Amino acid sequence: MTVIAIDGTFASGKGTLGKRLASHYKMPYLDTGKLYRAVAYKLMETKNSPENLVEAINAAKEIKPEDLKIPELKSGNVAVNASKVAAHAEVRKELLKFQKDFAKKGGILDGRDIGTVICPDAEVKLFIDAKSEIRAHRRHLELNANQESISFETVLKQLTERDTRDMNRKNAPLKIAATAHIIDTTDMTANDVFENAREIIDSIIF
Ligand code: DC
């Protein structure tokens, strides 16, 4: 079963790319960040802190596919808390089976540890990144379109904090898999990124 693993930094364009590739290759797609966002959202709903390990584990145990469709998962606060719950090794362990079961049938997964931990044998590994300011700008536009009023400076600060947390945590930190193809999307349109990734994938498996 073919697996395409897409890892990368926040707002680098990996989600847009994942969805476009899934539609092009007619493969199932899983945005694994939504699993961590759903855990964070459940904790927020029950007024628990993202640092509350016991409640975070309980929330992770109960995640179901329909939870990934909750519209609030897109919000800025959920994203900040998702990065905090994702640092708990026990939460990551609970969410492992969901991801492995999905990957078993073949598909495209995007996240932070797909090529390194979840699917180390993926046929294709892509690592997507862009300059912080560009990513913050993209995220700022997205949040404004979502009616969230937040300054560019705050978005940049939160993004830098999340990058630091995602890259420096002990468990499954964000890092570039040894065989990953790196795409820097700083000066690229979404279409350029898709074409670049398609060329890489076609040269490897199709
Ligand atoms: O991709 P995203 O912004 O929706 O991810 C939300 C948070 O979840 C992010 O800060 C890091 C974490 N995450 C992770 O640790 N591992 C993954 N495979 C996906 C996301």
List low-confidence stretches.
none
Helix coverage percent: 40-55%
Question: How would you write the strand order of the largest sheet?
Answer: 2-3-1-4-5
How much of the sequence lies in strands comes to 5-15%
- The third-level CATH topology is Rossmann fold
Per CATH, the class reads: Alpha Beta
Structural class: alpha/beta
- How many angstroms does the end-to-end distance come to? 13 Å
What is the CATH superfamily classification?
Answer: P-loop containing nucleotide triphosphate hydrolases
Mean pLDDT: 95
Rg over alpha carbons: 16 Å
Biggest β-sheet strands, sense, barrel: 5 strands, parallel
Structural account:
It is globular, with a radius of gyration of 16 Å. A five-stranded parallel beta sheet has the order 2-3-1-4-5, with helices on both faces. It has nine helices and five strands, in the order βαβααααβαβααβα. The chain has one domain: Rossmann fold (3-Layer(aba) Sandwich). The chain has 206 residues and is of the alpha/beta class. 2'-deoxycytidine-5'-monophosphate binds next to α2, α4 and α8.
